[in-house]
């Protein structure tokens, strides 16, 4: 029996640290993804592929008992998706459209995270991994997470008509340690051709660490209704109403944020009179001053807006965000503008903690 336990421990030790390191490496690529840099980034992270592959083989070679089948399956699946990401990145670097290939390759990263997340309930190092990097040594937070009963209804990750083939639904995260406290709500909008089920992972670590409820809706069509916003606006309002009916939400801290088309739709939905959002945080978004002609001065005056854009953005140049900053400030909004020197047209997860600080101020 002791030999069996030692074998299981050795297999876990062979895989899990290599897996967590590999996922961090892939996230490093995602944060710094810029078309001219794809080949260099792919080459930089390939060194973590082989330790992961070897760890996965060692892990699969062990006979896992029935009580640990779910644990083994989640770890194996997560490692498999991560390996696919490494291989797809290498292929993307040599393809005619390396940036497009790299974006697709990193879709495997979100699949790996989704596969691994249930292990947070089984293995403390994985739980720490899904915590903000600056809070991984917070013993009080770790104890609170470890003591949480994640089997309860209405906590953890939930999906409402939001399988990958479905549109118009939403994914939701409520901290497992939620115990009736009033919490901020973050509504995070994916980019063009994206999906809420995958964009959830752009924010989950920070929502889990900071105790926020997180909703990640999926647009009704392939992207948000930039030319016909009403259906998506109505859907977002219905999602917020539903969440508020089920969980105690801080009425003064309801954030709408989004990336690319999701950032642009943050303006369209969030600036409407009667919108259920108290704060807006568009990232890498398009903007035209004519947008404000349809916005009432009462809605704009004093509205907190946290604007994030990359100096390397190749889709929407930084001048677009600078124009938005000027126009929104002139209209009376309270704008905090962050132009990030090394950010291209990709989501900066490392800004989330700063945005939550701003939301909670």
CATH class type of the largest domain:
Alpha Beta
The CATH H-level homologous superfamily of the largest domain: Alpha/Beta hydrolase fold, catalytic domain
Number of helices: 15
Mean pLDDT: 97
Radius of gyration: 21 Å
Q: CATH topology of the largest domain, anyone?
A: Rossmann fold
**Regions with little confidence, pLDDT below 50 for 5+ residues:** none
Which bin fits the share of residues in helices? 40-55%
Protein structure class: alpha/beta
Spatially, the strands of the biggest sheet line up as 1-2-4-3-5-6-7-8
- By DSSP, the count of extended strands is 8
What gross morphology would you assign? globular
- Biggest pleated-sheet summary: 8 strands, mixed
- How many domain modules? 2
Distance between the termini: 54 Å
Protein described:
- With about 350 residues, this protein is α/β, with parallel strands linked by helices.
- The protein has 2 domains: about 1-115, no CATH class; about 150-360, Alpha/Beta hydrolase fold, catalytic domain (Rossmann fold, 3-Layer(aba) Sandwich), CATH 3.40.50.
- It is built from 15 helices and 8 strands.
- It has helices at about 1-30, 40-45, 50-60, 70-95, 100-105, 105-115, 125-130, 140-145, 195-200, 205-210, 230-245, 260-270, 295-300, 320-330, 350-360, and strands spanning about 155-160, 170-175, 185-190, 215, 250-260, 280-285, 305-310, 335-340.
- α14 links the parallel β7 (about 305-310) and β8 (about 335-340).
- α1 (about 1-30) runs antiparallel to α2, α3 (about 50-60) runs antiparallel to α4 and α4 (about 70-95) runs antiparallel to α6.
């Amino acid at each position: 029996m002791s030999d069996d336990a030692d074998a299981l421990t050795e297999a876990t030790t062979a895989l899990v640290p290599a897996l967590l390191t590999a996922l961090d490496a892939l996230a490093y690529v995602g944060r710094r993804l810029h078309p001219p840099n794809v080949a260099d980034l792919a080459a930089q992270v390939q060194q973590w592929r082989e330790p992961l592959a070897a760890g996965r083989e060692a892990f699969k070679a062990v006979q896992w008992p029935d009580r640990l089948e779910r644990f083994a399956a989640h770890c194996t699946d997560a490692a498999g998706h991560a390996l696919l990401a490494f291989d797809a990145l290498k292929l993307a670097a040599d393809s005619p459209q390396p940036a497009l290939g790299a974006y697709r390759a990193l879709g495997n990263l979100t699949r790996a995270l989704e596969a691994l997340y249930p292990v947070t309930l089984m293995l403390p190092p994985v739980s720490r991994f899904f915590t903000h990097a600056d809070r991984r040594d917070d013993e009080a937070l770790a104890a609170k997470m470890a003591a949480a009963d994640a089997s309860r209804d209405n906590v953890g990750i939930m999906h409402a008509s939001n399988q990958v083939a479905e549109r118009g639904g939403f994914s939701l995260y409520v901290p497992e340690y939620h115990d009736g406290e009033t919490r901020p709500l973050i509504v995070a909008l994916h980019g063009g051709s994206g999906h809420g089920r995958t964009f959830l992972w752009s924010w989950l670590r920070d929502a889990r660490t900071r105790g926020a409820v997180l909703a990640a809706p999926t647009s009704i069509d392939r992207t948000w209704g930039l030319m016909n916003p009403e259906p998506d606006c109505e859907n977002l309002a219905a999602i917020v109403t539903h969440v508020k009916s089920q969980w105690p939400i801080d009425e003064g801290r309801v954030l709408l944020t989004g990336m690319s088309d999701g950032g642009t739709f943050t303006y369209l939905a969030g600036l409407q009179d009667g919108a259920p959002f108290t704060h807006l945080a568009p990232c890498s978004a398009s903007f035209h001053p004519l947008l404000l002609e349809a916005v009432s001065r009462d809605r704009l005056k004093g509205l907190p807006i946290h604007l994030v854009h990359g100096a390397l953005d190749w889709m929407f140049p930084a001048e677009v965000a600078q124009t938005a900053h000027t126009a929104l400030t002139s209209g009376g909004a309270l704008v905090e503008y962050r132009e990030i020197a090394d950010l291209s047209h990709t989501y900066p997860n490392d800004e989330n903690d700063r945005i939550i600080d701003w939301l909670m101020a």
